[in-house]
Design brief:
two-stranded antiparallel sheet; 3 domains; Arc Repressor Mutant, subunit A; 11 helices; D-Maltodextrin-Binding Protein, domain 2; alpha/beta; elongated; nine-stranded mixed beta sheet
Length: 299
Protein backbone atom coordinates (compact mmCIF):
# COMPACT_ATOMS: atom_id res chain seq x y z
CA UNK A 1 0.00 0.00 0.00
CA UNK A 2 1.57 3.34 -1.04
CA UNK A 3 1.75 6.40 1.17
CA UNK A 4 -1.11 8.20 -0.56
CA UNK A 5 -3.33 5.20 0.06
CA UNK A 6 -2.38 5.18 3.74
CA UNK A 7 -3.25 8.87 3.97
CA UNK A 8 -6.58 8.18 2.25
CA UNK A 9 -7.34 5.54 4.86
CA UNK A 10 -6.49 7.98 7.68
CA UNK A 11 -8.65 10.77 6.23
CA UNK A 12 -11.56 8.40 5.59
CA UNK A 13 -11.45 7.04 9.16
CA UNK A 14 -11.66 10.62 10.46
CA UNK A 15 -14.46 11.58 8.06
CA UNK A 16 -16.51 8.46 8.80
CA UNK A 17 -15.80 8.53 12.52
CA UNK A 18 -15.09 4.80 12.69
CA UNK A 19 -12.98 2.01 11.22
CA UNK A 20 -16.13 0.19 10.13
CA UNK A 21 -17.44 3.21 8.23
CA UNK A 22 -14.07 3.76 6.58
CA UNK A 23 -13.88 0.10 5.60
CA UNK A 24 -17.31 0.25 3.95
CA UNK A 25 -16.44 3.48 2.12
CA UNK A 26 -13.09 2.18 0.85
CA UNK A 27 -14.21 -1.37 0.10
CA UNK A 28 -11.70 -2.85 2.54
CA UNK A 29 -12.02 -5.04 5.60
CA UNK A 30 -12.05 -3.42 9.02
CA UNK A 31 -8.88 -5.37 9.85
CA UNK A 32 -7.12 -3.99 6.77
CA UNK A 33 -8.09 -0.41 7.67
CA UNK A 34 -6.84 -0.85 11.24
CA UNK A 35 -3.60 -2.40 10.04
CA UNK A 36 -2.94 0.31 7.47
CA UNK A 37 -3.52 3.07 9.99
CA UNK A 38 -1.25 1.27 12.44
CA UNK A 39 1.45 1.00 9.77
CA UNK A 40 1.14 4.71 9.06
CA UNK A 41 1.49 5.63 12.73
CA UNK A 42 4.46 3.28 13.09
CA UNK A 43 6.19 4.81 10.09
CA UNK A 44 5.57 8.33 11.38
CA UNK A 45 6.54 7.39 14.92
CA UNK A 46 3.50 9.09 16.46
CA UNK A 47 -0.11 8.34 17.33
CA UNK A 48 -2.63 10.09 15.10
CA UNK A 49 -5.86 8.94 16.75
CA UNK A 50 -7.02 8.22 20.28
CA UNK A 51 -9.10 5.03 20.18
CA UNK A 52 -11.75 4.07 22.71
CA UNK A 53 -14.57 1.55 22.51
CA UNK A 54 -17.04 4.34 21.78
CA UNK A 55 -15.27 6.99 19.73
CA UNK A 56 -12.19 8.15 17.91
CA UNK A 57 -10.51 11.51 18.41
CA UNK A 58 -7.53 13.18 16.79
CA UNK A 59 -4.33 13.77 18.68
CA UNK A 60 -2.68 17.20 18.23
CA UNK A 61 -0.25 15.54 15.83
CA UNK A 62 -3.18 13.92 14.03
CA UNK A 63 -4.90 17.28 13.56
CA UNK A 64 -1.80 18.77 11.94
CA UNK A 65 -1.21 15.71 9.77
CA UNK A 66 -4.88 15.59 8.70
CA UNK A 67 -4.64 19.09 7.24
CA UNK A 68 -1.54 18.13 5.27
CA UNK A 69 -3.15 14.90 4.07
CA UNK A 70 -6.24 16.71 2.79
CA UNK A 71 -4.05 19.16 0.91
CA UNK A 72 -1.87 16.45 -0.64
CA UNK A 73 -4.82 14.26 -1.59
CA UNK A 74 -6.58 17.29 -3.06
CA UNK A 75 -3.51 18.08 -5.16
CA UNK A 76 -3.40 14.48 -6.35
CA UNK A 77 -7.10 14.57 -7.27
CA UNK A 78 -6.57 17.83 -9.13
CA UNK A 79 -3.61 16.39 -11.03
CA UNK A 80 -5.71 13.41 -12.05
CA UNK A 81 -8.56 15.75 -12.96
CA UNK A 82 -6.25 17.67 -15.29
CA UNK A 83 -5.47 14.45 -17.10
CA UNK A 84 -9.16 13.59 -17.31
CA UNK A 85 -9.92 17.08 -18.62
CA UNK A 86 -7.40 16.55 -21.35
CA UNK A 87 -8.96 13.19 -22.12
CA UNK A 88 -12.45 14.73 -21.91
CA UNK A 89 -13.89 11.74 -20.09
CA UNK A 90 -16.51 11.89 -17.34
CA UNK A 91 -15.33 9.08 -15.08
CA UNK A 92 -15.04 8.25 -11.41
CA UNK A 93 -16.99 8.72 -8.21
CA UNK A 94 -19.18 11.84 -8.10
CA UNK A 95 -20.40 12.88 -4.64
CA UNK A 96 -23.53 15.06 -4.77
CA UNK A 97 -25.47 16.73 -1.96
CA UNK A 98 -29.05 17.99 -2.38
CA UNK A 99 -32.03 19.02 -0.22
CA UNK A 100 -34.26 16.13 0.80
CA UNK A 101 -37.60 17.16 -0.77
CA UNK A 102 -36.12 18.58 -3.96
CA UNK A 103 -33.78 15.62 -4.31
CA UNK A 104 -36.58 13.09 -3.95
CA UNK A 105 -39.17 14.87 -6.10
CA UNK A 106 -37.15 16.41 -8.90
CA UNK A 107 -33.60 15.01 -8.98
CA UNK A 108 -34.20 11.31 -8.35
CA UNK A 109 -36.10 10.86 -11.65
CA UNK A 110 -33.14 12.40 -13.52
CA UNK A 111 -30.36 10.12 -12.30
CA UNK A 112 -31.08 7.14 -14.63
CA UNK A 113 -30.79 9.37 -17.70
CA UNK A 114 -27.53 10.90 -16.46
CA UNK A 115 -26.04 7.49 -15.70
CA UNK A 116 -27.04 6.24 -19.12
CA UNK A 117 -25.22 9.17 -20.72
CA UNK A 118 -22.13 8.70 -18.53
CA UNK A 119 -21.74 5.01 -17.70
CA UNK A 120 -18.23 5.47 -16.26
CA UNK A 121 -19.47 7.82 -13.53
CA UNK A 122 -20.29 6.39 -10.09
CA UNK A 123 -22.94 8.56 -8.41
CA UNK A 124 -22.93 8.95 -4.62
CA UNK A 125 -26.02 10.98 -3.60
CA UNK A 126 -26.55 12.40 -0.11
CA UNK A 127 -29.84 14.12 0.71
CA UNK A 128 -29.71 16.58 3.60
CA UNK A 129 -31.34 19.91 4.37
CA UNK A 130 -28.37 21.18 6.38
CA UNK A 131 -25.73 23.29 4.65
CA UNK A 132 -22.83 20.93 4.16
CA UNK A 133 -19.24 22.11 3.76
CA UNK A 134 -18.39 20.87 0.28
CA UNK A 135 -14.63 21.02 0.74
CA UNK A 136 -14.48 19.73 4.31
CA UNK A 137 -16.93 16.87 3.67
CA UNK A 138 -15.60 15.93 0.25
CA UNK A 139 -18.58 16.70 -1.99
CA UNK A 140 -17.98 17.42 -5.67
CA UNK A 141 -21.23 19.33 -6.13
CA UNK A 142 -24.27 20.51 -4.19
CA UNK A 143 -27.72 21.53 -5.39
CA UNK A 144 -29.17 24.25 -3.19
CA UNK A 145 -32.56 25.94 -3.17
CA UNK A 146 -31.88 29.31 -1.57
CA UNK A 147 -31.02 32.95 -1.91
CA UNK A 148 -27.27 32.46 -1.95
CA UNK A 149 -24.89 34.44 0.23
CA UNK A 150 -21.49 35.42 -1.18
CA UNK A 151 -18.95 32.61 -0.82
CA UNK A 152 -15.81 31.15 -2.35
CA UNK A 153 -17.87 28.49 -4.09
CA UNK A 154 -18.73 28.62 -7.76
CA UNK A 155 -22.48 28.61 -8.49
CA UNK A 156 -24.51 28.13 -11.63
CA UNK A 157 -28.24 28.93 -11.71
CA UNK A 158 -30.37 25.98 -12.76
CA UNK A 159 -33.92 27.29 -12.31
CA UNK A 160 -36.01 29.01 -9.65
CA UNK A 161 -39.03 28.34 -7.47
CA UNK A 162 -41.59 30.76 -6.04
CA UNK A 163 -42.47 30.88 -2.35
CA UNK A 164 -46.23 30.65 -1.92
CA UNK A 165 -48.49 31.29 1.07
CA UNK A 166 -51.29 28.73 0.95
CA UNK A 167 -53.83 26.68 2.89
CA UNK A 168 -56.49 24.06 2.23
CA UNK A 169 -60.04 25.09 1.24
CA UNK A 170 -61.34 23.35 4.38
CA UNK A 171 -59.12 25.45 6.64
CA UNK A 172 -60.13 28.64 4.84
CA UNK A 173 -63.82 27.78 5.11
CA UNK A 174 -63.44 27.34 8.85
CA UNK A 175 -61.17 30.32 9.57
CA UNK A 176 -61.45 32.72 6.65
CA UNK A 177 -58.74 34.25 4.48
CA UNK A 178 -56.20 36.83 5.65
CA UNK A 179 -56.66 40.13 3.80
CA UNK A 180 -53.03 41.17 4.26
CA UNK A 181 -49.90 39.85 6.04
CA UNK A 182 -50.78 41.57 9.32
CA UNK A 183 -53.80 39.27 9.68
CA UNK A 184 -51.59 36.15 9.76
CA UNK A 185 -51.30 36.64 13.54
CA UNK A 186 -54.86 35.40 14.04
CA UNK A 187 -54.32 32.23 11.98
CA UNK A 188 -52.75 28.86 12.70
CA UNK A 189 -49.39 28.85 10.92
CA UNK A 190 -47.09 25.99 9.96
CA UNK A 191 -43.44 27.06 10.03
CA UNK A 192 -40.45 25.58 8.23
CA UNK A 193 -37.74 25.65 10.89
CA UNK A 194 -34.87 25.84 8.37
CA UNK A 195 -36.23 28.93 6.62
CA UNK A 196 -33.36 31.38 6.23
CA UNK A 197 -35.38 34.21 7.83
CA UNK A 198 -36.56 32.04 10.72
CA UNK A 199 -39.90 33.12 12.20
CA UNK A 200 -39.99 36.22 10.01
CA UNK A 201 -41.99 35.90 6.80
CA UNK A 202 -41.18 38.51 4.17
CA UNK A 203 -43.53 39.88 1.52
CA UNK A 204 -43.48 42.55 -1.18
CA UNK A 205 -46.67 44.57 -0.98
CA UNK A 206 -48.16 47.48 -2.95
CA UNK A 207 -46.37 49.92 -0.63
CA UNK A 208 -43.10 48.02 -0.44
CA UNK A 209 -41.47 45.22 1.59
CA UNK A 210 -43.28 43.89 4.66
CA UNK A 211 -41.81 41.60 7.33
CA UNK A 212 -44.12 39.72 9.67
CA UNK A 213 -42.99 38.02 12.89
CA UNK A 214 -44.91 34.77 13.07
CA UNK A 215 -45.60 32.36 15.91
CA UNK A 216 -46.28 29.01 14.22
CA UNK A 217 -48.59 26.51 15.83
CA UNK A 218 -46.37 23.81 14.36
CA UNK A 219 -42.77 23.76 13.12
CA UNK A 220 -40.91 21.13 11.12
CA UNK A 221 -37.50 20.89 9.47
CA UNK A 222 -39.12 19.08 6.54
CA UNK A 223 -41.00 20.84 3.78
CA UNK A 224 -42.93 17.65 3.08
CA UNK A 225 -44.15 17.58 6.69
CA UNK A 226 -45.23 21.22 6.50
CA UNK A 227 -47.06 20.54 3.25
CA UNK A 228 -48.77 17.45 4.69
CA UNK A 229 -49.95 19.49 7.68
CA UNK A 230 -51.45 22.10 5.37
CA UNK A 231 -53.17 19.37 3.35
CA UNK A 232 -54.53 18.10 6.66
CA UNK A 233 -56.24 21.46 7.24
CA UNK A 234 -53.96 22.44 10.14
CA UNK A 235 -53.15 25.94 8.95
CA UNK A 236 -51.32 28.25 6.57
CA UNK A 237 -47.95 27.30 5.16
CA UNK A 238 -45.20 29.17 3.27
CA UNK A 239 -43.51 26.75 0.88
CA UNK A 240 -41.91 26.72 -2.60
CA UNK A 241 -43.88 25.85 -5.70
CA UNK A 242 -41.62 22.89 -6.48
CA UNK A 243 -43.29 21.27 -3.46
CA UNK A 244 -46.82 22.73 -3.35
CA UNK A 245 -47.31 23.35 -7.09
CA UNK A 246 -49.17 20.08 -7.79
CA UNK A 247 -51.49 20.70 -4.82
CA UNK A 248 -52.22 24.22 -6.04
CA UNK A 249 -52.99 22.83 -9.50
CA UNK A 250 -55.35 20.20 -8.08
CA UNK A 251 -57.10 22.64 -5.74
CA UNK A 252 -56.02 20.77 -2.61
CA UNK A 253 -54.25 23.98 -1.57
CA UNK A 254 -55.21 27.58 -2.38
CA UNK A 255 -52.76 30.44 -2.81
CA UNK A 256 -53.25 33.35 -0.41
CA UNK A 257 -52.30 37.02 -0.72
CA UNK A 258 -51.20 36.87 -4.38
CA UNK A 259 -50.75 40.66 -4.30
CA UNK A 260 -48.15 40.19 -1.54
CA UNK A 261 -45.57 37.85 -3.15
CA UNK A 262 -43.02 36.19 -0.90
CA UNK A 263 -40.34 36.14 -3.57
CA UNK A 264 -38.36 33.45 -5.32
CA UNK A 265 -35.58 31.06 -4.38
CA UNK A 266 -32.91 30.14 -6.88
CA UNK A 267 -32.01 26.53 -7.57
CA UNK A 268 -28.23 26.46 -7.93
CA UNK A 269 -25.44 24.01 -8.61
CA UNK A 270 -22.47 24.76 -6.34
CA UNK A 271 -18.98 23.33 -6.57
CA UNK A 272 -15.60 24.22 -5.05
CA UNK A 273 -13.58 26.92 -6.76
CA UNK A 274 -10.84 25.07 -8.60
CA UNK A 275 -8.67 25.93 -11.53
CA UNK A 276 -9.81 22.83 -13.40
CA UNK A 277 -13.40 21.67 -13.36
CA UNK A 278 -13.45 17.89 -13.75
CA UNK A 279 -15.38 16.43 -16.70
CA UNK A 280 -17.73 14.51 -14.37
CA UNK A 281 -18.76 17.70 -12.51
CA UNK A 282 -19.07 19.69 -15.72
CA UNK A 283 -21.17 16.92 -17.25
CA UNK A 284 -23.55 16.89 -14.30
CA UNK A 285 -23.88 20.68 -14.12
CA UNK A 286 -24.65 20.89 -17.84
CA UNK A 287 -27.10 17.99 -17.57
CA UNK A 288 -29.00 19.51 -14.64
CA UNK A 289 -29.11 22.95 -16.27
CA UNK A 290 -30.65 21.43 -19.39
CA UNK A 291 -33.08 19.16 -17.50
CA UNK A 292 -34.33 21.83 -15.11
CA UNK A 293 -34.39 24.78 -17.49
CA UNK A 294 -38.02 24.29 -18.50
CA UNK A 295 -39.27 23.26 -15.03
CA UNK A 296 -40.93 26.30 -13.51
CA UNK A 297 -43.16 24.53 -11.00
CA UNK A 298 -46.10 26.51 -12.34
CA UNK A 299 -49.37 26.39 -10.46
Amino acid sequence: MDRFSEMQVFVTVVDQGSFTGAAQTLGLSRTAVSRLLGDLEARLGTRLLHRTTRRLSLTPEGERFLERCRRLLGDLAEAEAEMNVQAGQAIGRLRVNAPVSFGQLHLAPLWPAFMALHPRVELDITLSDRLVDLVEEGFDLAVRVARLEPSSLISRPLTSTRLVLCASPVYLERHGRPADPSELARHALIGYSLLATGDVWEFSGPAGPVSVKVDPRMRANSGDTCCAAALGHMGIVLQPTFLVGPHLASGALVELLPDWPAGELGVHALYPSRRHLTPKVRALVDFLADALRTRRWTD
